[in-house]
Amino acid sequence: MNQRILVSVSILTVLISGVLLATILVAAQAPSGTPAAAAAKAATTWTLSRTPDGQPDLQGYWTNLSFTPLERPAKYAGKEFFTDEELAEEFKRGVQHSYDFTFQNSAETPVYDGTVYALDAWQNGIKPNRRTSLIKDPADGKIPPRTPETQKRATERAAARRGRGPADRPEDLGLGVRCFSFQNAGPPMLPGNYNSNYLIVQAPGYVMITYEWNSEVRIIPLDGRPPLSQNIRRWHGDSRGRWEGNTLVVETTNFRPEGTYQDANPETLRMVERFTRVDADSINYEFTVNDPTTWTRPWTVEVPLNKIEGPMFEYACSEGNNSLINILQGARAAEKAAAKEAR
Questions:
Q1: pLDDT for 193
Q2: What is the reported pLDDT for 231?
Q3: pTM of the entire predicted model
Q4: Which domain holds residue 281?
């Protein structure tokens, strides 16, 4: 009985997503006088609002949830954008997958079920993305090759960890388990599995971005102050912003070694983000990764930010934090059992 209910709900979810997607796709082609045509006309007559001090207004609650992968799948090689039919199919498949495989686990796997708490993508305002990959440059939609220096660093790290277990000390468990930091807070701001929401607030001389995971906050000064000294490192780097026309440009350096994106070199990593409000309900967000000691060339990613209703709820990161002692004790118990077995 329960299985039949789950299947019925799953089918209903896909059907609803198909109807919503069809509405989005035909809006631009709807006859004049229809609600869809009125919505399309409203988008073309939209005027960029500004804050009291004249900044383009980026404020509000936004999500970057997306079914589009970072790198382009092989089946879409050489193709930057989906056709209408492909977009509809990919979005329907994404909705079905997010329902059946909660947080990358099958529905039968006894893990935290986000659908119960309305955390899945199809429950949180995800919209279709016509791009076949979030990477827009290089043109093949792939991360550029890594440099020989990167491989050398990886070899050195592997040698340093050789002979150690996965939980010899708290540092081995990573920043997320220890509730220190979550990289998707930015930069870069990439879609997560859930809670992939942001609040942007502006004040004279500053922009503040709060990420829902861990309630992490980035405060970006716009007053032209010099960057921090190279010996001062932050979890999310040291950011400085400026306006180029209606686009907010944010340059970030001074990352902590433990928190660099994709194990880049914290000494040479430079991240440039661009936020451009394109209509009432969306911001075009791009970031360029520039680290000549890690990748053979810079590369750029484009992620739409879509407007959602707030507020964002407080994120309490405590599960791994409180169970850290048990994780370490369990690892020691496993080591003793293995030693006893060996004897």
A1: 79
A2: 92
A3: 0.82
A4: 135-320
| pLDDT-flagged residues of the chain (< 50) | 1-39
The dihedral of CA 119, 122, 128, 133: what is its sign?
Answer: positive
Q: Is residue 34 part of a domain?
A: yes
Contact 314/215 with Cβ under 8 angstroms?
yes
Residue 184: inside a domain: yes
Q: Give burial (CB, 10 Å; 0-12/13-18/19+) of 209.
A: buried
**How much is the pLDDT for 110?**
63
- Convert the pLDDT of each residue in 73-99 to its tens digit: 999 999 999 999 999 999 999 988 887
Query: Residue 21 has which token pair?
Result: 């997607």
Q: How far apart are the C-alpha atoms of 11 and 23, rounded to whole Å?
A: 19
Same domain, 35 and 154: no
Q: Is residue 263 part of a domain?
A: yes
Q: Catalogue the long-range contacts made by 313-321 (C-beta closer than 8 Å, 24 or more residues apart).
A: 313/212, 314/215, 315/195, 315/212, 315/213, 315/214, 315/215, 317/179, 317/213, 317/214, 318/179, 320/173, 320/176, 320/177, 320/178, 320/179, 321/177, 321/178, 321/179
In this predicted model, what pLDDT tens digit does every residue of 211-251 receive, in sequence order? 998 888 999 999 999 999 999 999 889 999 999 999 999 99
Name beta bridge partners: 207: 202, 220
